[in-house]
Amino acid sequence: MSFITLPPELLLNFGEHLTRKKDVSALAQTNRHLQQVYEPLLYGRGKQDTATADLRLNISFWASFRGKVEVLTNPVKHGATFRN
Questions:
Q1: Integer Cα distance of 69 and 84 in angstroms
Q2: What pLDDT, on a 0 to 100 scale, did the predictor assign at position 58?
Q3: String of DSSP letters for 10-66
C-alpha cells in the first residue's frame, strides 16, 4: 500500500506529528488529494502560532497590493482570520 492510498484519517494523523509547517506544506503541494487533506491542518496551525500570524499579514499585504484576492480565500475557508 502506498502512502497516498492511506485513508485520510491516517494521513492527517501523520501530518499532525510533523513539527515544521514547511513539511506539512510540502505534503500539501504534492497533489490535489494531499492538498485537500493537509490544507486544513496547515492553515489551522496559524490560529495558535504568532509566526504564522505574521506570515498571514505579509500574505494579505502582498495579495492586496497585487490585487490577488483569491490568495486569501484558502486561509479564510479554513478558519484563519486577518487582524491587525
A1: 18
A2: 65
A3: HHHHHHHT---HHHHHHHHTT-HHHHHHHHHHHHHGGGT-HHHHHHHHHHHHHHHHH
Domain ranges of the chain: 3-46, 49-77
- H or E stretch at 9: helix 8-16
Which residue stretches of the chain have pLDDT < 70? 44-60, 81-84
The Cα-based distances of 9 to 6, 12, 32, 38, 76 in angstroms read 8, 5, 16, 11, 23
Q: Following DSSP, what letter does each residue of 68-81 receive, concatenated?
A: -GGGGHHHHHTT--
pLDDT of 13 reads 87
